[in-house]
Design goal:
The structure holds 2 protein chains of 2 kinds. By secondary structure, chain A is an alpha+beta fold. Chain A is built from 9 helices and 22 strands. Chain A has 2 domains: about 230 residues, Rossmann fold (3-Layer(aba) Sandwich); about 110 residues, OB fold (Dihydrolipoamide Acetyltransferase, E2P). In chain A, strands 7-8-9-3-10-11 form a 6-stranded mixed sheet, sandwiched between helices. Chain A has a 6-stranded mixed sheet with strand order 14-13-12-16-22-15. A 5-stranded antiparallel sheet of chain A has the order 2-1-4-5-6, with helices on one face. Chain A starts with a strand and ends with a strand. Classes of the chains: A alpha+beta, B mainly alpha.
């Protein structure tokens, strides 16, 4: 599977080009209004770009505005499934009938469609809800069913439009874990404004700003070392990888960090990642004594302005501080500092 | 969904005109009931001409309701789901029978399908005549009842939105499958109440029917026509039949309310 996308939609001032390789998950990361959903709508065939060329495995889905032949494949014929922010389960059908919808629409025999639906409901962990009505299940459960329904369509490409944005924060970690497992081998375009989703679900991250790509590359790289100020503001994350010991993550160079475990708790010796935002980091010249915070000693490597903040980098981590703090602490490259972050600001994942 | 208790309330004076309106609607019905000759009621409504009129009314109203569904559903879908130049103007024209005096509708039908009408000769050649037949009754009723179905279904379609249809299409369902398995089930309450309103309008049809179909007992004389004719000669029978029509209408409204709360 190879998906190539190139479209210009002047109405919404969106001009974006990218490709998705087989088995790759590409995250489109950007604030509201950046054009993320427009890209998905064009890919799904819901919007015709003024100029564009979209192909799936060499088959032209949308070709407009060029000198060559125009092509247009209707949404139902694209083999691209769209999962929206809201589950949008058909309210008049049971959960099982919802998941069976795609195979049945393709003309698959009832018994086989049944088996497919049961399989996917099981995969997303809601097999016991098969006979319920959508109105009788929770929002998180409904989104799982919607995932199962999209997967039952066996799409070549799956489009996810902020699949966790409408959910209670309490259920997002578990759904994220489920998505990680079911999306692993699939080709996916994931739209999100949450850098964590991008980090945990995507291989490649594309940062969008006002309809243009401002940065793209491997997820970990774009998210931890964004090159542009814009990407840094929305995508900048601190990520520490290590192993789980007791109640904390221990990095190979001996630092330990405590945080809030997101999803299943890791076991001793599991590899784990600790993630926190640069804005959650406080910077000290002397180690703060008697504090329950995580402290990491390092030497400043870079200082650069990011919007109205100054980003201080040390030992591969970033901290956003005010210009006043930089002056008061006399922060210059080479200065010894202590980065401090509250355990409640750190998310820990088993990886 | 839980019932929301509104503390804001309504101005208290508003109950006075509201009550006056309710009295205005209900008092004439009550007055009519007081005039019913209960002793001969059953006899009056089961006379041959009454029975024929009632059966004809139920039969033609049912057929014209089905005709409204067959042509009205596609019309509502086209109006709600597509865009083309002049659509707004076309919508107003389609809804014209709603505001047109039914007699005018009857004359229009007569000059279209009548013997000397626009299509009259063509129909003559085909070997049958529409005007002054039961077919004409059905056509007159469909003509006046159609906007009721189109309006309520178009509203339901717009309220339901396209989101579910988009999902269904992205799951690989063809437009016909989407229409059958998603669109129609979602707007079923609107379709039911639209059909009930159409049935009620067809049942009460008078002006277009008498103009286009005439008043032949057992062929085109529906219950409203029968009541109007009897009023001259046999007021008791007219009152009794009117009560029958009121009962049928009340039953129909009951169905419409149920249809609206069914889903």
């Amino acid at each position: 599977m190879t998906f190539t996308f190139s479209a210009h939609v002047p109405d919404r001032d969106v001009d974006v080009t990218f490709t998705v390789a087989s088995g790759e998950t590409v995250a489109l990361l950007g604030p509201n209004g950046a054009g993320k959903s427009t890209v998905l709508a064009v890919a799904a065939g819901l919007i015709r770009p003024d100029k564009g060329e979209i192909t799936l495995d060499g088959r032209p889905l949308t070709t407009t505005g060029g000198s060559g032949r125009h092509a247009w494949v209707a949404p139902h014929d694209r083999e691209i499934a769209l999962l929206a922010q809201d589950p949008l389960l058909f309210p008049h059908l049971s959960v099982l009938d919802n998941v069976e919808f795609a195979p049945r629409a393709r003309g698959v025999a009832r018994s086989r469609a049944h088996a497919t639906a049961r399989h996917w409901l099981d995969q997303v962990g809601v097999a016991e809800l098969a006979d319920r009505r959508p109105s009788q299940i929770s929002g998180g459960q409904a989104q799982r069913v919607a995932v199962a329904r999209a997967l039952a369509a066996d799409p070549r490409l799956l489009l996810l439009d902020e699949p966790m944005a409408a959910l209670d924060v309490a259920v997002t970690p578990a759904l994220r874990q489920t998505l990680r497992s079911v999306l692993a081998e699939r080709s996916v375009v994931l739209v999100t404004h949450d850098a964590l989703d991008a980090l945990l679900l995507a291989d490649t991250v594309i940062v969008l700003d006002r309809g243009r790509i401002v940065e793209q590359g491997p997820a970990a790289e774009v998210l931890t070392r964004p090159r542009s100020a814009f990407a840094a503001r929305i995508a900048g994350l601190n990520i520490l990888r290590g192993t789980w010991h007791g109640d904390r993550v221990q990095t190979p160079d001996g630092a330990t960090i405590q945080g809030m475990v997101d999803g299943d708790s890791p076991r001793d010796g599991d590899t784990a990642v600790a993630v926190f935002s640069p804005s959650a980091v406080s910077v000290f010249r002397d180690p703060p004594g008697g504090s329950p915070r995580n402290v990491l000693a390092a030497r400043v490597t870079e200082i650069e302005p990011h919007g109205d903040r100054i980003r201080v980098r040390a030992a591969g981590l970033s901290a956003d501080v005010t210009a006043q703090a930089v002056a008061e602490l006399d922060l210059v490259p080479g200065a010894a500092v202590t980065f401090s972050v509250k355990a409640t600001e750190v998310a820990v994942y088993r990886s | 969904m839980a019932r929301v208790h509104r503390d804001v309330g309504v101005p208290s004076w508003i109950f006075v005109p509201a009550a006056a309106g309710a009295v205005f609607v209900l008092l004439p019905l009550a007055a009519m009931v007081t005039r019913v000759e209960w002793g001969s009621f059953f006899e009056l409504i089961t006379s041959e001409s009454s029975r024929e009129a009632l059966l004809l009314s139920l039969k033609t109203s049912t057929i014209s309701t089905l005709a409204c569904i067959v042509i009205g559903v596609p019309m509502a879908v086209v109006l709600a789901r597509t865009e083309f130049p002049g659509q707004g103007f076309l919508r107003s024209l389609v809804l014209l029978p709603l505001v047109l005096p039914p007699v005018v509708g009857g004359i229009a039908l007569l000059y279209t399908f009548g013997r000397r009408g626009l299509l009259g000769e063509t129909i003559d050649v085909l070997g049958f005549q529409i005007a002054f037949s039961t077919t004409a009754v059905v056509m007159a009723q469909t003509f006046v009842a159609l906007p009721f179905l189109v309006v309520s279904l178009e509203g339901a379609l717009r309220t339901a939105g396209r989101r579910y249809e988009v999902v269904a299409a992205s799951l690989g369902a063809r437009p016909t499958t989407v229409f059958r398995r998603v669109t129609i089930p979602l707007v079923l309450p609107g379709l039911v109440s639209g059909a009930v309103l159409s049935f009620a309008r067809a049942l009460g049809e008078f002006g277009a029917t008498i103009t286009f179909a005439g008043s032949l007992q057992g062929v085109t004389r529906t219950l409203p026509l029968e009541i109007y004719l009897r009023r001259e000669t046999d007021a008791d029978a007219a009152v009794a039949l009117s009560l029958v029509l009121v009962v049928v209408a009340v039953v129909v409204i009951g169905f419409a309310r149920q249809g609206r709360t069914a889903l």
